[in-house]
Design goal:
Strand order of the largest sheet: 1-2-3
Number of helices: 4
Strand content: 5-15%
Radius of gyration: 16 Å
Shape: globular
Largest sheet: 3 strands, mixed
Helix content: 55-70%
Number of domains: 1
Distance between the termini: 45 Å
Order of helices and strands: HEEHHEH
Length: about 100
């Protein structure tokens, strides 16, 4: 089985949530925060770093999809997913 990990692995492996079929699933917020910090160390400004991280992330996804197709990593907003699951389970509980 072939998995496509983000590089450098020593930086991004800590953000892996799990695996879905042949795809590595990352915590989107943690990956994005990492990118912001990396750009902030170069720009020194939070807003510029956030914008650069967003542009880089979008280009990264496009690059991976073109190169790896179905093995492209997935990114899940873990907090929003947990909120969704909590809300969904509450609305479907029968009393």
């Amino acid at each position: 089985m072939f998995y496509c990990f983000l590089n450098p692995r020593e930086a991004f492996d800590q953000y892996v949530i799990g695996f879905v079929g042949d795809q590595v699933c990352y915590d989107y917020e943690l990956v994005f925060e990492h990118l912001v910090e990396q750009f902030k160390s170069h720009t020194g400004k939070e807003e510029e770093a956030s914008q650069a991280a967003a542009e880089f992330f979008n280009e990264l996804i496009i690059q991976y999809e073109e190169e790896y197709g179905d093995a492209t990593p997935l990114f899940l907003n873990k907090r929003k997913w947990q909120d969704f699951c909590l809300h969904y389970s509450k609305t479907n509980i029968k009393h």
